[in-house]
Amino acid sequence: MTKVLFAAAEAAPFYKTGGLGDVSLALPKALTAAGATVRIVLPYYEQLFPEQYRDQVADVTHFWVQVGDHAQYCGIKTLTLAGLQYYLIDNQDYFGREGLYGYWDDGERFAFFQMAICEMMERVAFIPDVLHLNDWHTAFIPVLLAEKYYWIEAYRAIKTVLTIHNLQFQGIYNPIVLDSLFRIGTQTFTDDGIAFYDQVNFLKGGINFANAVTTVSPSYAQEIQTVAFGERLDGVLRANQGKLQGILNGIDTTLYDPETDPALPANFSVKALAGRATDKAALQKQVGLPVADVPVFAVVSRLTKQKGMDVLLDSLNDFLMTQKAQLIVLGTGEPALEQAFKTYQAAYPKQVAAQIKFDVNLAQLIYAGSDCFVMPSAFEPCGLSQMMAMRYGSLPLVHLVGGLKDTVTPYNRFTGAGTGFGFDDFQPAVLRKMMTQVCQVYHDTPKAWRQLQQQAMRQDFGWTTSAGTYLQLYQDIMS
Ligand code: ADP
């Protein structure tokens, strides 16, 4: 049985800011179901840790991790939830804060986290066959295993997989950190090592040092090898092409099931869609829009340019003036974008609802009650929301890139095929035209609409296939 330690900076149901949090629950669960022994290691963000799990957390051990000149306390806690065992790395100075990321000392916080993981494995006597790392917060571990912990014999057989969920965040720091945090020399500070324009790049280190690198959709795996999507690492990724592959994320289809979802006023299924109308009315009411039979467009997203929110905003005025449609936006993000949606709400109070917050229950109601889920991302490693939307019968309208291209089949009005709508040309005018077309399909051909909904809901977005692909990858690098 393959032993896996899955390391991430966030995981549902404890803490989640985006797709990484979802994957860090669903993938270990699917790997376990497929026969692997998986444990998960996370930071213990005490202030954010949900109340209902607190009394299940037990202390395992503690020790000191040398961060530069300072010995830092490192507590190891554990809990088991739904058959999965978690290790939580505790240091109040680093992780006892109000948020997960975005602090001036994130480099030091995650340097500590990564060294703590390395030092923990021996102490808790869980030496995995595969250490599965995720994004820049844990990407430096393969470098540490090679440069700092090479003397620990038990670790020599450990293989590493690095999954890139978002290439945009890389963990770039002054090379001084090699000594001031990690206390390793400069021998890896080369172009084919960890050096990146005179800086240290954690993610690049992981790409060069891990045994295998994956990203979360096949299309994104190709795109990041180009200058347009490579975030200045395209050369490094091309050089590591042989160990790079795209494995599509899934969603937790037990948790996210319109037939049983407790967040919904009315449950429904592909065969009995009636409850959807109730959910749509409840949604309109809850966000303060008139309960009317007009197409409801929706966004559940970080409000950023990555998610194409600037392009959406630029397309809105003409669209709202000419179409009787509604738009519900749930999200937080860049202040200027948040403000712009609020301005639209003030200008079009009967058509736009801007819900500037993070609200998991409202998100579910939006998936279940909206008609068209707008996701015009500039780039999209995989994207989970569009899958969630399809599962709940909201037809995605997407920019056909990355995982969006791999999961949404654009409507073909001649054959009736499709699971949503898509466009290639990343322009506000194109998006507006598409939204207008969506309104036409909605009003003029309700039968075609219903068929698209059913096709979308019937897609298999479960984890089974992808978990099998990961297990195969583990086998390949172990042999
Ligand atoms: P990313 O990880 O790039 O932010 P994904 O589509 O992969 O995007 O995952 C986003 C996840 O976060 C989805 O589960 C989505 O429902 C959720 N989400 C995003 N914004 C909000 C919000 N404001 N309230 C509730 N859930 C949100």
UniProtKB/TrEMBL annotation:
It comes from the Bacteria. InterPro entries: Glyco_trans_1, GS/SS, Starch_synth_cat_dom. ADP-alpha-D-glucose binds at K16. It holds the Pfam family Glyco_transf_5. Coiled coil: none annotated. CDD domains: GT5_Glycogen_synthase_DULL1-like (cd03791). Keywords: Glycogen biosynthesis, Glycosyltransferase, Transferase. GO terms for molecular function: alpha-1,4-glucan glucosyltransferase (ADP-glucose donor) activity. Its EC number is 2.4.1.21. Pathway: Glycan biosynthesis; glycogen biosynthesis. Residues 3-238 form the Starch synthase catalytic domain. Residues 291-437 form the Glycosyl transferase family domain. It catalyses: [(1->4)-alpha-D-glucosyl](n) + ADP-alpha-D-glucose = [(1->4)-alpha-D-glucosyl](n+1) + ADP + H(+). Synthesizes alpha-1,4-glucan chains using ADP-glucose. Belongs to the glycosyltransferase 1 family. Bacterial/plant glycogen synthase subfamily. This is Glycogen synthase. It comes from Lactiplantibacillus dongliensis. The gene is glgA.
